[in-house]
Each structure stands twice: as structure tokens, then as C-alpha cells.
Amino acid sequence: MPDDARVLAYAQHLDGGHRDGLRAALRGLGVEIRGESPAAAATYDVLTLDITLPSGSSSAVRAGLSGWSAATGIGAALVPQPVYAPGPKLLIMDVDSTLIKQEVIELLAAHAGREAEVAAVTEAAMRGELDFAQSLHHRVRALAGLPASVIDDVVARIELSDGAEQLVAAYREAGHRVGVVSGGFSQVLAPLAERLRLSFATANDLEIDAGVLTGRVAGAVVDRQEKERVLRSEADRSGVPLAATIAVGDGANDLDMLAAAGLGVAFRAKPAVRAVADAALDLPDLDVVRHLAGL
């Protein structure tokens, strides 16, 4: 049987030619367009098309959209009906380079004069070239001996990604749960989670002894498997089907939760993540994600 779904196109500016081209591309794939609604925000335009997919054609349509997006430079995503349908929803996001603009461990490492070294390891881990847990332990060792007071300095320097506050507020105001799971650190994340009034926040714990960072992580590392586990656990706790969840991230550590979610969104992500995510968002504005959820 045919399936209802949505296609979203998003860019800093969508002109009439882009809109006509998308409609033509979809019709060429055998898609019936049932309706459309444009939206505009301060930094982006969005076009939402309600569609009916020919039976069994979702993979072909997704591939066709990917080709159209590559040719035009316009972001486009196929959104399954459960993601935007009425009912409870759940949004889970990565933190570093997703919810916020920076990598927290690099901000911490700058206090030890080892930012460049740590940044190089972070990049390799994000590309999936290094085991995340091993790379995290290696980077955290660079922090040994720093006073715990550097955490307050880092918290003060954190910048939210553009649109982050609007996205979180849209979910919360609609009565939905929104939270984060991070390979970063709970001591830095806690004030941010309180500020945004997140439903949950999971991260690693930096070990601190007598007011000094020991260079170790206390407890198990939040790796890609743990991120997926948190997604599933929070969805179950909230009574939200996995098919109605959205996960957003940018690195290899996010791959499992992106694959498990109803819609996995690669936000300004590494190529390996973009290649497998359901949607790629290259605009520097997280607020676009609320349109994917129909909010």
C-alpha cells in the first residue's frame, strides 16, 4: 500500500526555481504531492511537501532526494509519517559541535596548553578513525593537574548553536521531551541542562580529587553504544515509539543512536555520518529540526 510521508527542503533561501525543481524531481520518482506549506525564519526557508510514496519506494525516493540535494546545494529530507504525526515525541541530541558550537575537551585542554594535540585526536575520533573510549581516555590525561575551577571558566565560554534555544523551547512548549547525551562531561553539561530545562542529560564524569582534575574519567565512558541505549531507555520511559524519535549528532560516536531513531539527523557532520544519516542539515541553525518533527 502507498505510504504517507513528508519531504522537507531547507536552505538560507528557496526561490521559485528550487521549489519547481523539487516538485518535478519527486514526480519523476512517482511521488504524489498532496499539499505543501512554506515557512520562513530569520536565517532560513523551509518548504514542507505532504506526499504519498509508491509502495516500497522509500529507499529510491531518499536516494533521488540525495542526488537532487547534491546537484542543487539545497538540503532535503524524507520524513516518515510517525516522526511528525500527532502524539508524544522525543528529541535527543549530541552536545559538542551540535547543541553547542565548541568541543568542551578542547576548551579544557587550552588551560593545559595542549589544545592542538587534543583537537587532532578529537577530529580523528569524530571521523571514526579511533576507538572513542580509548581516544577519550587519552585526551582526558592531558587535563591532569588542572584545578577544577577551570570548569567554571569553560562553562562561561560555551556558546549554544544558533537555533538551539528555539528548538528546545518548541519541543517543551508542545509538551514533548528533549534531552542530550554527550561524550563530554557532566560537570560542564549540568548548568547548560538547567538553563535549557532539558528533560534529561547524560555525560561522562571527570574525576576530581582535592579540587584537581586527575586526568581520568570516573565510571564507564558514554560511547556510541551507550548513546543508543540512552535513546531507547528515554523513549521507553516517555512512552514514545522509536519511530517517533529524532536524534541529532555530528560524529562517529553518534552513529548508533542516529540509526536507531525514527529520523537520524547529521548536523554539520563528518562525511561518514552524513553518508548514513536519514537527513543532513548543513545550515548553521538547529531550529530547522523542529520542522522535521512538524512543530
Quick structural gist:
With about 300 residues, this protein is of the alpha/beta class. Helices cover about 45% and strands about 25% of the residues.
CATH homology superfamily name of the largest domain: HAD superfamily/HAD-like
Strands side by side in the biggest sheet: 8-7-6-5-9-10-11
Question: How many strand elements?
Answer: 11
- CA radius of gyration is 20 Å
Descriptive key words:
single chain, Rossmann fold, 26% strand, elongated
Describe this structure in words.
By secondary structure, the protein is of the alpha/beta class. The protein has 2 domains: 1-85, ACT domain (Alpha-Beta Plaits); 87-295, HAD superfamily/HAD-like (Rossmann fold). It has helices at 16-28, 58-72, 81-84, 95-99, 104-110, 115-126, 132-141, 150-157, 164-173, 186-196, 224-238, 255-260, 271-276, 288-292; strands at 3-11, 32-40, 45-53, 75-80, 90-93, 177-185, 200-209, 212-218, 245-249, 263-267, 279-281. A 7-stranded mixed β-sheet has the order 8-7-6-5-9-10-11, with helices on both faces. Strands 2-3-1-4 form a 4-stranded antiparallel β-sheet. Helix 6 (115-126) packs antiparallel against helix 7 (132-141) and helix 8 packs across helix 10. It is elongated and about 65 Å long. The model has no long low-confidence stretch (mean pLDDT 94).
